Amino acid sequence: MALMQHQSFAPLVKKVSPAVVNISVTQSGASDTTAQEPEQGSPDFPNSPFDEFLRRFFDQQNPNGQRHLFPQMPGGQAHRIALGSGFIIDPSGYVVTNSHVVGDASKVEVTLQDDSKYPAKIIGRDPKTDIALLRIKADKPLPYVTFGDSSTPQVGDWVMAVGNPFGLGGTVTTGIISARGRDIHSGPFDDFLQIDAPINRGNSGGPTFNLDGQVIGINTAIYSPNGGSVGIGFAVPSNLAKTVVAQLEEHGKVSRGWLGVQIQEVTPAIASSLGLQGEHGALVAVVSPDSPGAKAGLKQGDVILTFNGSEVSRLRDLPRLVAETAPDTGAKMKVWRNGQTVELHATLGELPNNEQVASTTNGREQDESARADALGMHLAPLNSQLRRELHTGKEVQGVVITQVDPGSAAAEVGLSEGDVVVAIDQQPV
Length: 429
Hints:
Elements: H1 2-5, H2 10-16, E1 20-26, E2 81-88, E3 94-97, H3 99-102, E4 107-111, E5 117-126, E6 131-135, E7 158-163, E8 171-182, E9 192-195, E10 207-209, E11 215-222, E12 233-237, H4 238-251, E13 257-258, E14 261-265, H5 268-274, E15 282-287, H6 292-296, E16 303-307, E17 310-311, H7 317-323, E18 330-337, E19 340-347, E20 349-350, E21 370-372, E22 377-381, H8 384-390, E23 399-404, H9 409-412, E24 420-421, E25 423-424, E26 427-428
Antiparallel strand pairs: 1-2, 1-4, 2-3, 3-6, 4-5, 5-6, 7-8, 7-10, 8-9, 9-12, 10-11, 11-12, 13-20, 14-15, 15-16, 16-17, 16-18, 18-19, 21-22, 22-23, 23-24, 25-26
């Protein structure tokens, strides 16, 4: 504390702030009072993969209580608003921001610190990680910043955020890394840095710097019960961003590896039943037919312990490790099976991009429901309606838990409503 008490951030601000930009967008006019959004999602934040958990930086409240990402002018004219932030990563004009900031806007404009404005082209977007890459063209080399190694900062390290909150460009705030590896249940690749540097609406897409002036995170979301900063912000770590940006620059899209398995957490009860020391790894619940996992020899009930030499300490480690591996490349896995470790080799496929899911319904057929009295849970056949509700493919076979009695044996081992029982003692149901 004594070391930092009298240290000024001014030299760091002077060094990096010229590369931080403001971003505004224009969407084509619509006759409806609510702008049409390109991606399906919440009516509050339709471009955001985090809309069910967080209030976005730049939502706007109208008198009727409706939020619009693109407020409409009379007569359906397009309206330009300061939406977010970004940063230049190359003197030739590549700009990184959030995917939800630009959406599928018809026009994007980037404003530099000296108030010069440039039209921007969207090179590519990756909604799964909420990262977008833009390109602006200037007649001179542009100021830029570089990515650092997001694996090295520790909880408690100082960070600095620069952005465009509430349209106030060039705003600088400081704080510390509050936590690492945050999973806010927005998707399979969650691995956020949590920071307490005050960030607000309009900071989306802006950089979080370490004290060396390197970008270690992209400010993406906040948790806020009142719409303002409460010191809980989330940034996409730079190591993830670097791989995404590189693919967007080269291909305009992101290709991810695909193993073709569905996994679940290894609970203490599951670990004990399998003779596994500790609750680590990812339990294979379903192996899709003809998938890379099936061809590699993965079986239901296997526990994947490592993937390409990296430990699978937590359930969510595996999807991220697989996704970071290029399609059509080989991968080694250490798997726990029948009380011993075996090694398997897979050639990954490409993750399908059709993430659109069926809408849910409220009714559930209970006529065929059977009560498992000994365990304190209710079961039902996995029919087509339940498959839609649970987003479960046809390759999954089993029964659905429709209710778990409080205090029952089923509740104590962690079973819950919506779980699909596919095997008992490694025997298919």
